[in-house]
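Hi team,

As requested, here is the filled-out complex form for the 1,3-dihydroxyacetonephosphate run. I kept the field names the same as last time so the parser does not choke. Let me know if anything looks off before we queue the next batch.

— J.
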Amino acid sequence: MRRIIIAGNWKMNKTIEESVSFGLCIKKMFYGKPEVILFPPFTAIKALSDALYDSDVGVGAQNMHFESTGAFTGEISPVMVKNAGANYVLIGHSERRHIFGEDDELINKKMIAAAGSELTPILCVGETFYERQNNLTEEVIERQIKVGLSEINYSKNVIIAYEPVWAIGTGANATPEQASKVHQFIREIISSMYGVGSGDEITVLYGGSVKPENIEELAKMEDIDGGLVGGASLRCDTFVLMWKKLKSVKIC
Ligand code: 13P
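And here is what came back:
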């Protein structure tokens, strides 16, 4: 079933105390739908999920390794993020792909591990500026989804985030029409992989310079189910404002 979600990816920001303080703030202001999911750094997952224990706000990890245990210095396993209180995990974020060299095959291993660990994965896909300029957007998105989801039995649990690399952290979001076109294409690929209608059931979020000024126009597009927000998710008042705007377009 499609969900309406606003998610905050804090990237490498916020200490434990800052994360808890945000959690307590959002808990006071957030009620009902759209759903909220926060992705703090690993170090704050436990404290944030404890602070949010009696709320509907979800907590997730920004990354994980695909093995459960072993000699992988510096890595965190699915079991560990689950144990710390996360129920979600971002897989294949553009910064993981482009700064840390994660490829589609590695991302697929992580997707399989997430599916086997009762974590809801958000598979992040998106083309670079060069790829868009050279009309490669659809080819890239199709490959990232087909390889990323390979050997994953269709699970309505999987969420996809379309985050064009050129729009991340640049202030230049994709236009609602550009984003919507790719979201429709993602739904077509899902339907081609998992059967007619499945593309209409999967939740597809847009990410890349989402802010209070543009969330409503993006959310007005039928194929956009919400946002995965970076920079503008770091302040509680701004995040709550975006949540209210998403609610006004999608819920009532
Ligand atoms: P910005 O909202 O800062 O562009 O980041 C988007 C993002 O990477 C969310 O995962």
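Two things worth flagging: Residues 153 and 194 are 8 Å apart (CA to CA). Residues 9, 93, 163, 168-169, 207-210, 228-232 surround 1,3-dihydroxyacetonephosphate (CB under 6 Å).

Thanks,
J.
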